[in-house]
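Question (not urgent): is this output format expected?
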Amino acid sequence: MTLLVPTVTRPTPLARAARSSLVGRDDLFARVNALVEEEQHVLLWGPRGIGKSAVIAALRPHGATIIDPFEHMHSRQAALVLRAMDRDTQFLAASRSLDRAHLGAVRRFAWRFTTVRVPMLSRASMRRVVVRECELSRIPMTLVTDAWIRAAVRLAHGCPGAAIALVRAAAERHASTNHLPSPVAAQIEARLRQEGFTGQSE
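Got this back:
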């Protein structure tokens, strides 16, 4: 769990630079920022790779304590959070599920949060994510065909984090072999890395 100590008592307005740092999230940023400015506790939820942590990082809410991930907190940690809430500490959290069994010890005070679902991105936005990440990862764009982009978008299922992980795995493979793997191969490698398997295949 990442628990950041607040530095000021009020959140700062949403910066234009932060809003432009992620694709397709302007409306979400505006909604969450408004809730934070109203000093509400906010819980972002959605599946792995949907971009919850990225949204929080882009918001940079001074004055709010961040809990990421929110779920599976043990009872002692939950008690500390509850005590802080009673003392007017504001929280901004992220969770993969709102299921009570999944939330564990935090379910007893989850109702005090305003929940905001982080939606999947459209295919158009996902395409922009893939292309931009290819450029940032310095993959030669002559190798990134339209079919490659479409396949990467399809495999990521609207989750920008999944798309970024796929492209970065492909970029690392290209850097070491001078060969751009297929999106399927890159996705497999990205998932293996997420599970802790870091060895390179021959």
